[in-house]
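Hi support team,

I'm opening this ticket because the web form for multi-chain structure prediction keeps timing out on my end. I have pasted the exact lines I submitted so you can reproduce it. The total is 1029 residues across three entries, so I didn't expect it to be a heavy job. Is there a limit I'm missing, or should I split the entries? Thanks in advance, R.K.
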Amino acid sequence: MSASAAIASTGGVRTNEARTAPAVDVADLRVAFGKVQVVDGVDLALERGQALALIGESGSGKSVTLRALLRLFPEGRSRIEGRIHVAGRDVQALTRRQLADFRGRDVSMIFQEPLLAFDPVYTVGRQITEAILRHERVSKEDARRRALALFERVRIPSPERRLDNYPHEMSGGMRQRAMIALALACRPQVLLADEPTTALDATVQIQVLLLLRELQRDLGLTIVLVTHDLGAAVEVADRIAVMYAGKIVETGTARQVVLDPHHPYTIGLLRSRAEGALAKGARLQTIPGSPPDLAARPPGCPFAPRCFLAEHRCHGEMPPAREIAPGHRVACWHADEASVAYRVGPTPVRAAEPASPGPPGRPSEQGV
Amino acid sequence: MSVIPGTPDPFAEDRGGPAQPLLSVSALYKHFPVRKAGGRKQVVRAVDGVDFEVLKGETLGIVGESGCGKSTTAKLLMGLIARDTGQMLYDGQPVGERSMPWRSYRRQVQMVFQDSYASLNPRMTVEQSIAFGPKVNGVPGRQAVERARALLARVGLEPKRFAGRYPHEISGGQRQRVNIARSLALEPRLVLLDEAVSALDKSVEAQVLNLLLDLKQEFGLTYIFISHDLNVVRFISDRVMVMYLGRVAEIGPSDAVLAAPSHPYTRALLASMPSLDPDNRTQKALLAGDPPNPIDPPPGCRFHPRCALAEPVCSDAEPPLGAVAPLHRVACLARQPGSGHSAAPARALAA
Amino acid sequence: MTQPVAASVALDGGVLAADDRAHGQEAAFVPSRGFWGHVGHRLVRDPVAMAAGALILAVVVVAILAPWITPMDPYKGSMLRRLKPVGDATYWLGSDELGRDMISRLMLGSRLSLFIGVTPVLIAFVIGSGIGILAGYVGGWTNTVLMRTIDVFFAFPSVLLAIALSGALGAGIFNAIVSLTCVFVPQIARVAESVTTGIRKRDYIDAAKLSGASALTIMRVQVLGNVIGPIFVYATGLISVSMILASGLSFLGLGVRPPEPEWGLMLNTLRTAIYVNPVVAALPGVCIFVVSISFNLFSDGLRSAMEIRQ
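Hello R.K., no limit was hit. The queue was backed up. Here is the completed structure from your submission:
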């Protein structure tokens, strides 16, 4: 408790302007590598203290979108266009020097593989104190004290001893926590998380997801989480944005997207999950085909070739994102038909849960 | 009718009848020596006394976290590493002895690996990879290639477009289809799927799961399906085996094990599955910390240091696999009458 | 209204049809190039490697045609016309200490120089790959015995080893080739072993074992194709070393014997003329340098062309 208080109390050194603007404000973001347009017109807005999950399959551009928020690409080989405002700063306008300060201090990032974030030849504690010393003028002792508080904050057992561990001496889940501690070292306003739990075991994954939620609540952190796992998204995020072929096809609160999906792709994702199967051994509903080749992007809606509602117009004209309810935007010409089809369909995900004897994730309620 | 020529394979035919398990494994052990700092010798007890049976025509799911021994078990079953002790009976025949040499066994038992890319030779076309097995078993080249093409078509890849492709030229889902086709090239009866869909995107995973269901029916296959994803295991398996630190914690019909788990560990695993309901998110993780290292497993029940039901007796006695319902067996003292655990039921199940 | 939903429940046939549509024209009928096709394609776009390759090709052509295209008799000397400078009206590149035409001798010399430079590497490539792949694939005791034996050769600097072996065997082209081969076998074997060890643990090798293939079949079909590329690149890099060592042996009188022209030997006999006509004396050295660096650059180009991320 004292740890989080210590972290929160000294956070107010930034300018007022940076404190009032939305945490993430991205408009018409386009990222290309060579001729391949990986991100193709993404709009994102996220209030302070909110958690957003970007979900999509491999190649959907979700990770690239996340990295674009910190301009984490080699200069010459990528082209980033559009407005990127994060934590009140115009990321596109930052010089290289300013960008280096911005990364880690205002916005920091955690990855799937913690070993990439740490230098194997220094102790974890030393790397965290150095991150603090790099961005702030504090004494070495204070930095160490803050590193210890961070370790307590991310619930690493016997933190004093663990600070002197090398990265390889920690288990996978602990390394992930240590990386989160490192990311929080300079009290960033925004935390970007790129598939942070994908490599973890199930029982560890849920601990890390709950930790992220707790940090968001207690520190007022803004979180952007990239994941391919709808379950992980629901556990952490207030809002969910579904990406497909470099575009956001549906965005809304977690409830809106998961319980009232309006885009055929979101519906397909929900339906193809094994827990949504009608009966054991019955065939799963699938999204036919595979994602488009981004180098030869079809005109019109990128999902049209795989969509059960596609008609002539879908193949020729990209539908604009339309607001169908406050905060719920869908890019589909047939959003309403899709929604109706989902609701009358055989397996609404919500309805199936009470019916089955052991809904996933709820055994604690059944009593021991 | 087998396509593999030569002497008629005596093992291709069913021997013991439908009631005899296709594979039964007993007292399987595998310890790996490791040298820690200071030169002290230690052993990783990767698989530490595992017994189970695979029934004909069923799908047995094996679940567990890293270090539980499920991948080592897979390698032991395939003979890719040698077991320390233990016996494996394939349709009643002891595997690895004269009556059932490994070579004959492997025609009957094939495996699909998790990493679809690493399990295909990058310098061979898809067709060559599939035809390799039949070729080394004496099928003439032309026929082997024809068989490869037929299998490609069967797993949903048009031979004309895909046969000549290299692994890096096709998507992950397509590669895994190729791996499945290769595993079927020798007409096995048992296919071991080691995290075969774990690396795939959800929508592709669903396609591959459907394919596996179809193939099983068409070729009368038996599956061992290893996965960490309980939802997928629940969907595809008839029976489920839960492993923890090299031992079986619970085994039984998947409806029973995953709907009403008996072992506290299975319970915790289920509680760790992320919720899909935004109004009803997970509030508390049942387990803290990481799965422990199988180098120095705790005495008694291996799960007791993390278990909510642990009592002193749990650190003394290693719980045997006992029945809690017909076909449903659990290695937990709290479920076994007369174990000395205060929560143990009063009388034994009449089984 | 339920109609479209039913349509989304696709059978595999449906998957395929939609897959075709999704991929559209993309690569559907482009024949696969395969690994070596890709390497060639990338190599052609590397100007340095192509220039080096062209130079090597030119030298090889000259070496093959040398007896017919030399402007003068490379063996016939004239005491009156010794050590003419480069640019002489008759001797374009001057003449040597016995008055023989330099350009003719350099052209003819390329034959032996290339031969005793390339042959040992080729032989060592075959033997070394065999030893290395065997040691790498089989592992265990076989590996230990083979690789430790090979390590013994690494105790000597390669120049010293080549000279010692040549000295023991006696002068002559054949013995020079044998001793150079002995120098390169351990080096290639070591590379082959490490590449093979890296591949041995791959899943596709396990899959091949499961299909019942013998170790020899697996090595031939599954391993060889994956390791031969890196070993080959390493071997082409050794050609430059081999040429220099071979010249060195001839220079010391352990390789080719006079009056046969060979660049290393020519360098030796011309060394007395270095104060009289340094440019001519340096010419064989320039040839050795240019050809060996060409092999090196070509090998580098090949290496980077093979680094295809797959």
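A quick check on our side: Chain A touches chain B through 58 residues (CB under 8 Å). Let us know if the file doesn't open in your viewer.
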